[in-house]
């Protein structure tokens, strides 16, 4: 078998050699004949020259005959060159054919000799060409240019061989055939027509490939623009990295903040399709107020993608937490901060990072340094829920202060106030309420609620609550009567009984905050599906030291908060406050978590209403005009007067259900966190203010009854109330009238007197009790 294969291989090689020899012999004979003719022409020219000299000497030859002979000799010479040009063009055209045939033949021989070889020679050649075209971006147009030039040259040589035109004219004629295939219609003769048709056919192929390249380039560019791969050429823009349910509220707050500037630029980069992001943003039901939102697809972990959104020129960068596991979300936020700190051009703005777990805050600040401001979403919401549970109505006040729609915090320097005491500064702004001072001598530290005797120094800035940063300014100091408090006493703390429904991953932090706020002897009931014998271990693993709880006693109950018989086992009518938490088992889905919270709320209110004395229920119901006396919402509304229920809401759409029924004071988690992120993004100094207001120590927002500051029916201006509150070391920032549903923060006309009722309440900033 091997001898047979070897014989076949030798036979094929002899056939190839014989064919090549014939071609070489034929080509050599033609070349030899051409050169022989050329030499013969040269000899004839020499003889003619000699004869011409002799005849001219004898005056027997006329010069006209000599020119005729020279033309004949030139014609013979040019005819030889044309034949040579035609042969060369045909040989060059046949060379690629022989090369491909040879490669194919060698590939077949190799495959027959070595069956284990998987890659043939022609496949290797295809691979090399593919790599070349992939590595070099301009390889395709360059190859097309070379092919065009070769076609023009070969076509020119072929035309030169079959026509009487010069070589330059033939090259130009070849280009016209390549550029316009219809130009060959005027060709006459078999040779010129064959050459012109061949050139025109090659020209059509060339231009088809050129159109394909141009079409691909245009499509690729439009595809790049459509998918958000182009670079953002902006500066002083707000950059948002990531995508979550909070994005809609965040964009709304940024749009409101930029309205006074005529709008701004917000760039959103996430690992999503650009068209999908734009479609989701277009569905958001709010006015962008002149703000433009630009979407780009990319990863914040890739420096090239960060450069694409001009990260070094952004005035603030917001890193959103991912929906899902808290540890994975915070780990990704940490890697994002590492990528941002690795930008070679440096960052112009600061980084606002949303975290899910308080324990990861230290690590992120360690990596980001002074560039980073953190907002721990779960911690903020947990503390707000506790504050709002102890003081009904505080949720609405926090929404007004954190959002840009009403009044918010601003810090600005006013040189004309230097040397003035803080007590006088309080009544110097008709359209704002001073809350603190940024002390230059203490390294820019912000002091909330300072002493009245503090004197503003050069470089100090004033922290105020105002509608916008350009809507307030100090005015002439008014004459305000201070007066005295109706009674001077400290509101004593009373023991409370609080119920926590559900289990959060940071529930141990909430327990420690409650222990700091509540009076000694208070009870904290915990009702959830975690087994009672496992709770203590989970709390200890979370960092809670049960022996350090001095003010509260933990009472554990096991059960499902959406099952009525489990809830009926609790003394629901005896609790002062009930906190319905978004359980960690369903917190990844906002709709599912809200559905569970809403079901728990309705069950608790219904059970409370059934347990109230009938006569008390009838008396309370008679004062309700919103719903019929026999309606279930009416019964639950009068039950809400007996205890406060705070529901942790993740989806803004659930807010409308609770606000309409008025059976619960709500906390809108995602919206409040978005407000805090937007406020810190606009001014990073505000983060220090928010951290103190949320912390266990320092100052906090509080709701006080009016009888602490005035008598029933007393007429006072808001400035006078501010100065009276200073006797209790408090700053009054707003009020809510007895029959009003919403509080008024930073009220206008502060110098005008009005009649107050002891049932009115005031919103104050005061030291934590």
UniProtKB/TrEMBL annotation:
Transmembrane regions: 12-31, 83-103, 142-162
Protein's UniProt keywords contain Magnesium: no
Taxonomy, superkingdom: Eukaryota
Main location: membrane
One of the protein's GO biological processes: potassium ion transport
Pfam family, one: Castor_Poll_mid
Membrane topology, from the record: Multi-pass membrane protein
Location in the cell: Membrane
Entry's Gene Ontology cellular component terms: membrane
Residues annotated as domain RCK N-terminal: 235-376
Keywords attached to this entry: Membrane, Transmembrane, Transmembrane helix
Annotated family: Belongs to the castor/pollux (TC 1.A.1.23) family.
Protein name from the UniProt record: Uncharacterized protein isoform 3
Organism: Theobroma cacao
